[in-house]
Amino acid sequence: MKIDLTETTSSKINQALVSARRALGTPAIGMVLTLVIVTDEENAYDALKSAGDASREHPSRIIAVIKRVSRSPRSRRDARLDAEVRVGSDAGTGETVVLRLHGELVNHAQSVVLPLLLPDAPVVVWWPEDAPADPAKDPLGALAQRRITDAYSAEDPARELAARADSYTPGDTDLAWARITPWRSMLAAALDQQHVELVSATVEGESENPSCELLAMWLADRLGVPVERTVSAGPGLTAVRMETKNGVIVLDRPDGSLATLSMQGQPDRAVALKRRDTAELLAEELRRLDPDNTYEATVKFGVAQLGGPAEPKPAEPAAATTPAAAKKTAAKKAASK
Description:
Layout: E1 2-5, H1 10-24, E2 33-39, H2 41-54, E3 60-68, H3 73-77, E4 80-87, E5 95-102, H4 109-113, E6 123-126, E7 146-149, H5 157-166, E8 172-174, H6 175-178, H7 181-193, E9 198-205, H8 210-223, E10 227-231, E11 237-244, E12 247-252, E13 258-262, E14 269-272, H9 278-286, H10 293-306, E15 319-321, H11 323-336
Parallel strand pairs: 2-3, 2-6, 3-5, 6-7, 7-8, 9-10
Antiparallel strand pairs: 1-4, 4-5, 9-11, 10-15, 11-12, 12-13, 13-14
Helix pairs in contact: 2-9, 5-10, 8-10, 10-11
């Protein structure tokens, strides 16, 4: 069921939600959280589809906030709220409210969203693109226990990761971090099978891919060895090689779907490591609402070691040094002096 409301208010939207539930014969509310999506008209469809798919695992009230900024001075002064209410099969397993804010109301989105939040339920805010520099201090982000950004959608992912580190507040996370969860699990399992001393590691993937950078930072932070970052044609993250005193451990995924795990003294094994869509990544992030201490330690470690995002070097596109490797190089230079 869909209900269109023009020049409406938050109170009328709540009344429409109640009426729609009664009309469908489902007056009870079985939703576990409120997911607020801050997006624009161009990306709203994809974001709502991903959120709807994720709601099959996490039944939720989805509130999409679309800010319609007009170039006309008069239109900017005329505040107006249009809404679309979706309940039933049109809204996944929960409810969906699409808010279109016009005029001065664009600067007061939190006052519109606040009355629509589910009572006594967690609030998650997701920016599919154009995330604020400090999500926790954003008026909408301040309402949430969990704030999700995506460095992959930024024009400069390296600087975006630096901004995430500078403004980190418990509850912040990024979809670029969720993309490497299967890689981290597989690499940790491989190291558990062989108790060997590591010498170095290499992370191979697309240039300016924030997930590749985060995986390199995580390895350097956790293993305490030099980690080299090399560039490949993709798709995404393609390989990780860990040099040990007993041989090389390689996790190679050239096609974005099936990976091969190679270890000294064991036969090669094929493992499923497909690239996941946004709905799966979002569902993973909604499984936990507590602070992600590992993400915090990783992103802060990387930025602290590099002293900020590194500028790309067109003359040397094949490799860029990760935090631990940069630290080792600096130590060598100091020793030579």
